[in-house]
Structure formats: structure tokens, C-alpha cells
Amino acid sequence: MMLGRLLLACVCLTPAGPVQAIYRCVQVPEEAHFAETFDSGPLDRRWVLSKAVKETNAEALKYDGQWVLEEPEAAMYPGNRALVMKSSGQHHAIAAYLHRPFTFMHTPLCLQYEVKFGRDVECSGAYIKLLTQTHQLRLSQFSESTPYSVMFGPDKCGTSHRLHLIVRVTDSSNGRNQEIHAPQPADDLTVYFTDRQPHLYTLQLYLDSRYEIFIDQSLISQGRLLTDEVQYTESSDSQPESPVSGLGAGSVGALGLELWSLSGEVMFDNFLLTDDLELAERWTQDTWGRKQPGLLERLLIATNSRPWLWGVYVFTVGLPIILFISYMWPDKRFGPPDQDYYYKKSDEPQPDRQPERDQPDRPTSLSDYGAVGRVGARRRETQKAQRKSDLEVENE
User: pLDDT by residue (tens digit) across 163-179?
Assistant: First the structure.
């Protein structure tokens, strides 16, 4: 009974709908090479829509997919806007210049942003490109052929759920560009595309070619890019990146999203590019961390996709309560106090039945059985005579 009341209280105290809280705009750190929350100002204040034409074998296609700034449908923090790729079955391209170029020479690279897939995803990319700093870089002409140094982020098509990390390097022996593809994470990524919740994607890239990939601050992949295990492919663009400590991330001048989506409604928020890992940690706490649900809410949300967790919760909560009561009150008596079985756990074992005191002792020998039989016969004769006398009285 006590356990049921506890579980009922947990459910009742959980808000039925999103609880709105006061949202404070996050201050953009000046030390960051790029930071964007989308909470203030129009979209075109910093971001440039591509006017380029996407060339294919069959036809030339425009990047005419729509980009808008919106608050999430379940707005727990009014005023917290995000960038949304709206259109279904369209090509989208948008980019922004960095506050200052990022040169991958003496410090690590940290890139992170949030993604939320708002519909049932059939085929949609949500990866970001760090565009190489060149004299030819024009964001209004940003397209799939624009040179980039790093591509990172989630991508889904059909039953394939992928997380890309591609770094372009220059072969110092012949000057040719190559693309290094990091192996896919071993974890199943399906839930990040289907739960309709925002997720934080973080890439940390180091000078010795080590990389670490996090989702929601949990490490899901790590390794070295310059090994025999990674995949190398020839890069088609003609603008080489300068090799730096063996890893040619080069100089980055802008970042952009060049994507196609069958379903649309993909939300992006809180972009950050920096070489300061401590700054990235503070930014994460001020953005992603502030929007995370409490422990109780997370436990209840988890049961939506894993109902068996209710059994775990009952066992985890109920067993300690029972053990606590047994330990704290070892002399507690059980049962109604007016019954014979009212006893303590520490009492001596009690017999299942006690002999009734009002009944005569049971016969223990053959002679006893005979005496008992004669007494019973006399009783039956007396009762028969009494009934006969009663009938005569009634007849008179």
C-alpha cells in the first residue's frame, strides 16, 4: 500500500504539460570563433541564403528550401528560438561567416550544436560544414561544391542512421586533397532521429589527429583519423588545404548547412565553434544544460519507450522501503491484537492450532471410546423423549 502511494505521488507531481520558465538570452562569448543562439535579431542579420544552383546529371536545381526562426511547439522557455529547415522534398543551403577565421595550428577544435527532428524522418541530413577560408568564398553561392575542411553531424536515409565526421587533408607528396571518413559509432543511433527531442552533438578534434564525438555529453565515438583503419577518398575540389601537424583542417572562414530533406521540420540551435574547451563547457551549461528535465521527469519519460522500467522502479523503490521498516521496527507485532496469532517476529514459533478449552478431552483408549459411546446414546434417548413430550403438549 505504501509503495503504491509513493508511485502515485510521483506520477501526480509530474506536470501533465510543459512548464514554462523565464528564459534568459545567453550572452555570446567574444572569445568564441562563432556562437549563435537565434534568440535576437532577424535571420538575415548574420546568415546568408544561398542563391546558387545545384547541378545534377539530369537538371539544375535551386536551393529554394525555406529557413525560418521559430520557437519549439512545446515552448518550455518562451523566447528561445531556433533555426528550422521547413520545406519537404527541397534543397536547402544557408551559411554565416565566423567572427574570426579558425586556424587549426596550436589548439583543439570544438564544434557543437543542437538538432531536433520534428517529424517521422524518412530521409534527411542535419550535418554542418566548416567552409575553408579562400578568396573565392561567397556565401551567396554556397553549394555542395564549396570547399570545406570538416563535415560533422547526423544523417538518415531509409533504415540507415549515420553520424558523419569527414576531414579534408592534403597529401604533401602530391598536393592532392583527400577526405578522411571516421568510422561510424558502434551504438544504435535510431532514438536520436525518432524521439522528437533536441540532442546535442559535439566534436572535439585534436592536433595529433585524435577525435571525440559526444551526443548529449555522452562519449559515443573516439579514435585517430590518420590511421590505416579510416577511409580515404579523393576530394574533387581544386582548392587544397594546408597540412597542419599531419591533419589538414586548414583555415575555416564560415560554417554552413547544405542539406536535402524529404520531411522537413528539422530544428537547429546553439551553434558554437571554439578552441577553448572550458568555454565550450560553460556554453553547454548555459544553453543545453538549462533546458534538461529533472531526474523524476527523465525517469518517467524513459518509460514511454521502455515500459519494463516500471518493474525496475517498483523493485528499486519497494525493496528498500520493506527492508527499512523491518530494520527500524523489528519488534512490530502483526495481526489483530485479540487473536491468538498476534505475535512478534522474535517470538517462539507458534502452533498452527490450539486445543479448544471448552471441549472434553478426546478419548485415548478403546474403553474411553466405549464410555463416550454410552454417554452419547443416553443423550440421544433423552432428546427423543423431550421431543415426544413437546408433541403431546401441542396436541392437548
Answer: 999 999 877 777 778 89
